[in-house]
Amino acid sequence: MCTDCVQKEYPDRGNTCLESGSYLMNYVGCAKCHQRDFVLISNKATEDEDGEEIVTYDHVCKNCDHIIARHEYTFSVVDDYQEYTMLCLLCGKAEDSISVLPDDPRQTTPLF
């Protein structure tokens, strides 16, 4: 992973978890070939581990195949919630939790 290719290392993305794609606003350009072009995705792999889906891939410079960052995205269901996480030098870090129920118990307001 190359810290010279990004503006900020592991920016906080709140609850924006990307399963694929690249956060190009954080991309300065390739530190190896000094070009600022598209970022390709390579070595994408998906595995299931104890009910958790893990997606990993590399962000790679289109021109010289320099590896910019390693992206990891996870998805799991815990109790009544879908849990998402993302960790990537380029795309940042984020986590999100969404209820699988029609009405999220965390969003209800007390009646009294």
UniProtKB/TrEMBL annotation:
Any GO MF annotation of the entry: zinc ion binding
Tagged with keyword Zinc: yes
Key word Transcription present: yes
InterPro entries the record matches: Churchill_sf (IPR038543), Transcrpt_activator_Churchill (IPR009508)
Alphabetical UniProt keywords: Activator, Developmental protein, Metal-binding, Transcription, Transcription regulation, Zinc
GO biological process: fibroblast growth factor receptor signaling pathway; positive regulation of DNA-templated transcription
Pfam families for the chain: Churchill
Domain of life: Eukaryota
PANTHER family membership: PROTEIN CHURCHILL
Family to which this protein belongs: Belongs to the Churchill family.
Name of this chain's protein: Protein Churchill
Species annotation: Scleropages formosus (Asian bonytongue)
